[in-house]
């Protein structure tokens, strides 16, 4: 069984993330989306909310599981019996830091990192940009699944009094 982990914050999941997860799901028997629990940084959505949205939008792939993790990513990989990490690369500027982490992770636990070039449609897309646009009432429909767009609307626009 060939398993790969797609790690990240996913606060919230965007079409850029989904593109990477979907492509990975066609290359591996099983893909585990690992949602990082970061105690020092609270997101717009709780980890449970992020997981729920991710499960909903990845269920059609059939071989994708969504779990949370804390601590070392390589320990999560070991627990999931996955030997490969998949990282999306949006720009050359992503590469320096990703290379450092990849080299650390292979040294720590023999976990390989495969880099997947972003689909050019999504190379400008990040969760933080989506949150910024949504915060000011911009339409994020082309950039996130509908369930995420609706959750952003509900979270960011106060209901009328
Ligand atoms: P961000 O980097 O926006 O904070 P995450 O930490 O949730 O998002 O990212 C998780 C993974 O998804 C990383 O490997 C990241 O490079 C990748 N990723 C994020 N946005 C995109 C995108 N638009 N296209 C391709 N990969 C992406």
Automatic annotation (TrEMBL):
Please list the reactions this protein catalyses: (R)-4'-phosphopantetheine + ATP + H(+) = 3'-dephospho-CoA + diphosphate
Predominantly, its location class is cytoplasm
Pathway(s) of this molecule: Cofactor biosynthesis; coenzyme A biosynthesis; CoA from (R)-pantothenate: step 4/5
Q: Which residues bind substrate?
A: 9, 41, 73, 87
Keyword hit for ATP-binding: yes
- Cytidyltransferase-like domain spans which residues? 5-131
- Residues at which ATP binds: 9-10, 17, 88-90, 98, 122-128
Q: Which UniProt keywords apply?
A: ATP-binding, Coenzyme A biosynthesis, Cytoplasm, Magnesium, Nucleotide-binding, Nucleotidyltransferase, Transferase
Any single Pfam family the record assigns to this protein? CTP_transf_like
Q: Where in the cell is it found?
A: Cytoplasm
> Which InterPro entries does the record cross-reference, listed alphabetically?
Cyt_trans-like, PPAT, Rossmann-like_a/b/a_fold
- Record's subunit section: Homohexamer.
**What's the stated role of this polypeptide?**
Reversibly transfers an adenylyl group from ATP to 4'-phosphopantetheine, yielding dephospho-CoA (dPCoA) and pyrophosphate.
Protein's name in the database: Phosphopantetheine adenylyltransferase
Name the encoding gene, please: coaD_1
